[in-house]
């Protein structure tokens, strides 16, 4: 992984890091990939990927209205809100 | 005092719920191990009084009048839930998770929320924003993780039961390192609703107690079908506590061939060999099984868990709840600075790994390959369970280790999960129980069972604990 790839990755993950820290981050990530890469030698071409251990069927329910948590309780947890809205910095110039 | 004695004392009116709660609160006030993140003493006293005043309603409930500590990953209505992170330091959920609701209804009293690795990412409890937890057996050592506070709480005798979660070993490894019993149920047995998500396809909540009896009673309370969790399974109701007396007869127990090659410490191996003798003495047949695939589980886990974590933790953006970086004039910078300031280094690292393995160009080589390894491990377990009822192995490679030991070699820490991860990948239930001591520190062994065989795991462990004393040792 090089510095350009790391910059892209940091942006995708919406994490910022001082450029001085980049070599250290690359080293830490590379260290983990060295561990993970041990699986690359396995020939598993005949296996289907498994994304959930129980391979469950979808669960459906009747489309009926249920009591929901109140709006205000959720807005109270917001760092900044006004009446019915979450407030964020201006998005459109 | 163990769980059964505590509940018997309540049921016989020897000790009221309020007295039990006050006793636990006194112990918390003297705790210097950093076990709790938040303590709810006044709420606990009120709830205990309510239970005492409604004795007839609660006396037969599975957790009647017993104080409990919950891992700080379960949402508690009106009470802070931090997940060990600065991101949620001031988060007060507007609802109870299903586990909390079930435990409340079962007659237990919440004392507080226990310390944990940040967002459950760690094996030593050192990634917590609220500082590390010390091991009750030796305060220079870690209690394990990620449910380190919950395990230390029971080991230190503050409560007789606590809840944890296990994504790659986070119940079983701290249980082993703290000398108590801990069970990771089958994926889908306990609802994940209201439990802060790390790796949704592996996360599973489960009980801690000194012994299998306490774990059985707590699992009876915790498990339920829940329509709010689409991976919750509808199962015929089993009463795990009552099933402890069931005679499952002589079992075929699988032991791993060439297990020495996994780098297990000689003291842990010594305890393992002793336990094998105990199992034979109880009339079980030991059968060697070839499971060389076990070691590939680590690679698969450290791709799939970060991948799911990078997706799950994308919700923390400083908008709707949790931490927000101050004075940001631009929405993109608000996201970036919020996440950079409020996530710890280990969490950021796993988000970056997860984002990388899911990105175009790397998906097939990493994520897809890891899912195939996962299939291989599940298939292997299915083969193994055609010939044996349970698999027995040590829980960890080593005993409790010193704080900061792993900071220079994180891969060493990751490899500590070698023997616990396979059950998570396959979604199987597993139980860790104390099976030896060396250097005045506990050692743990674990059984892995077939899907929904929690009754067999608990009962087999219970029978061992009837003829051994490892679970009775106290720091």
TrEMBL record, chain A:
Instruction: List keywords of the entry alphabetically.
Output: Transferase
* Compositional bias per record (Basic and acidic residues), positions renumbered to this chain: 60-82
Query: Which molecular function terms from Gene Ontology are attached?
Result: transferase activity
The UniProt annotation puts the region (Disordered) at 58-82
- One Pfam family named in its UniProt record: GatC
Record GO biological process: glutaminyl-tRNAGln biosynthesis via transamidation; regulation of translational fidelity
The name on file for this protein is Glutamyl-tRNA(Gln) amidotransferase subunit C
Q: Which organism is it from?
A: SAR86 cluster bacterium
Q: Which gene encodes it?
A: gatC
Automatic annotation (TrEMBL), chain B:
Q: Which reaction does it catalyse?
A: L-glutamyl-tRNA(Gln) + L-glutamine + ATP + H2O = L-glutaminyl-tRNA(Gln) + L-glutamate + ADP + phosphate + H(+)
Q: Which residues form the Amidase domain?
A: 20-458
Q: Write down the NCBIfam families for this protein, in alphabetical order.
A: gatA
Q: Which UniProt keywords apply?
A: ATP-binding, Ligase, Nucleotide-binding, Protein biosynthesis, Transferase
Q: Which PROSITE patterns match?
A: AMIDASES
Which one of the record's GO molecular function terms can you name? Answer: glutaminyl-tRNA synthase (glutamine-hydrolyzing) activity
Q: What is this protein called?
A: Glutamyl-tRNA(Gln) amidotransferase subunit A
Subunit field text: Heterotrimer of A, B and C subunits.
Q: What InterPro entries does the record point to?
A: Amidase, Amidase_CS, Amidase_dom, AS_sf, GatA
What does it do?
A: Allows the formation of correctly charged Gln-tRNA(Gln) through the transamidation of misacylated Glu-tRNA(Gln) in organisms which lack glutaminyl-tRNA synthetase. The reaction takes place in the presence of glutamine and ATP through an activated gamma-phospho-Glu-tRNA(Gln).
Q: Where are the transmembrane segments?
A: none
Is Transport tagged as a keyword?
no
The UniProt entry annotates the active site at 71 (charge relay system), 146 (charge relay system), 170 (acyl-ester intermediate)
Give its E.C. classification number.
6.3.5.7
- Class of enzymatic activity (EC top level): ligase
The record, for Pfam families, names:
Amidase (PF01425)
Q: Which GO terms describe its cellular component?
A: glutamyl-tRNA(Gln) amidotransferase complex
Signal peptide boundaries? none
Family, similarity comment: Belongs to the amidase family. GatA subfamily.
Biological process per Gene Ontology, one example term: translation
């Amino acid at each position: 992984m090089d510095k350009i790839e790391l910059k892209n990755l940091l942006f995708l993950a919406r994490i910022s890091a001082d450029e001085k820290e980049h070599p250290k981050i690359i080293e830490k990530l590379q260290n983990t990939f060295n561990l993970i890469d041990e699986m690359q030698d396995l020939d598993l071409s005949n296996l289907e990927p498994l994304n959930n251990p129980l391979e469950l069927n979808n669960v459906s329910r009747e489309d009926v209205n249920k009591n929901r948590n109140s709006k205000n309780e959720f807005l109270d947890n917001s760092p900044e809100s006004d009446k019915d809205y979450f407030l964020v910095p201006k998005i459109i110039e | 005092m163990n769980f059964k004695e505590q509940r018997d004392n309540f049921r016989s009116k020897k000790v009221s719920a309020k007295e039990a709660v006050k006793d636990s609160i006194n112990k918390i006030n003297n705790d210097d191990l950093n076990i709790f993140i938040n303590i709810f003493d006044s709420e606990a006293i009120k709830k205990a009084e309510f239970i005492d005043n409604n004795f007839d309603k609660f006396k037969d409930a599975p957790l009647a009048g017993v104080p409990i500590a919950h891992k700080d990953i379960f949402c508690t209505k009106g009470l802070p839930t931090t997940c060990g992170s600065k991101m949620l330091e001031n988060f007060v959920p507007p609802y109870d998770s299903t586990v909390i609701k079930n435990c409340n209804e079962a007659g237990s009293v919440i004392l507080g929320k226990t310390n944990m690795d940040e967002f459950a990412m760690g094996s030593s409890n050192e990634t917590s924003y609220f500082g590390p937890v010390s091991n009750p057996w030796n305060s220079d050592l870690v209690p394990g993780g990620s449910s380190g506070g919950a395990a230390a709480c029971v080991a230190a005798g503050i409560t007789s039961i606590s809840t944890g979660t296990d994504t790659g070993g986070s119940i079983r490894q701290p249980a082993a390192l703290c000398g108590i019993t801990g069970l990771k149920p089958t994926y889908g047995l306990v609802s994940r609703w209201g439990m802060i998500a790390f790796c949704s396809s592996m996360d599973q909540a489960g009980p801690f107690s000194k012994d299998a009896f306490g774990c059985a009673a707590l699992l009876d309370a915790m498990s339920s079908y829940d329509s709010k969790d689409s991976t919750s399974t509808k199962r015929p109701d089993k009463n795990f506590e009552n099933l402890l007396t069931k005679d499952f007869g002589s079992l075929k127990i699988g032991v791993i061939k060439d297990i020495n090659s996994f780098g297990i410490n000689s003291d842990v191996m010594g305890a393992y060999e002793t336990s094998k003798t105990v199992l034979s003495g109880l009339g079980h047949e030991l059968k060697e099984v070839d499971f060389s695939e076990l070691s590939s589980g680590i690679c698969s886990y450290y791709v799939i868990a970060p991948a799911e974590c990078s997706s799950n933790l994308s919700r923390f953006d400083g908008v709707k709840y949790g931490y927000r970086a101050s004075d940001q004039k631009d929405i993109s910078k608000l996201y970036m600075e919020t996440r950079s300031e409020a996530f710890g280094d280990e969490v950021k690292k796993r988000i970056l790994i997860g984002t990388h393995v899911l990105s175009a160009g790397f998906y097939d080589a990493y994520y897809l390959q890891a899912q195939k390894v996962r299939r291989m491990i599940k298939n292997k377990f299915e083969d193994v369970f055609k010939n044996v009822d349970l698999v027995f192995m040590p829980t960890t490679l080593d005993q409790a280790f010193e704080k900061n030991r792993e900071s220079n070699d994180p891969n060493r820490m990751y490899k500590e999960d070698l023997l616990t991860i396979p059950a998570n990948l396959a979604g199987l239930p597993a139980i860790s129980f104390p099976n030896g001591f060396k250097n005045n520190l506990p050692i743990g062994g674990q059984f892995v069972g077939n899907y929904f065989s929690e009754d067999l795991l608990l009962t087999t462990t219970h029978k061992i604990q009837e003829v051994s004393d490892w679970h009775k040792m106290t720091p």
